[in-house]
Amino acid sequence: MAVWRSEVRSRPGESTGATVTATDSDGDAITLTKVCGPGDLAITGEGMDAEGTSWKSGTWSWTVPEYYAHGPRWEMVTLRAADPFSGVLANLVVWIERPIHVYASPVTVRREGTTWASIHVDDGDPSPIPMDFPPFTL
Prior knowledge:
Elements: E1 2-3, E2 7-10, E3 15-24, E4 31-36, E5 40-48, E6 54-63, E7 74-82, E8 87-96, E9 101-104, E10 119-122
Parallel strand pairs: 2-8
Antiparallel strand pairs: 1-3, 3-6, 4-7, 5-6, 7-8, 9-10
């Protein structure tokens, strides 16, 4: 079985998808299913080529809910292709890109005065974001 892409990226509110294709060189009938994870799998075609290899294809699709704007950063989708004798699994990782949020408090500075301020940037990743600001005079 082959998944057209092993990773996809999307944002909350956007749709994403991947093409899934399974083949069986013995010509056995193939079932193609989503085992777990978000989204839906629609079978788009099946048949047999001139060499007697059977195939089945489908499209996995999902619209990322707005919840993911502050929720998990990724989801795993597991797909299964099987003939009457065995099966194989394939995983698809869905990376959820979240918007960057910048938080800052208002600051008042008198002429030729000094003060300090803090700015917090959240991109949903626990790694720090380095930020340097040169001093300036009003």
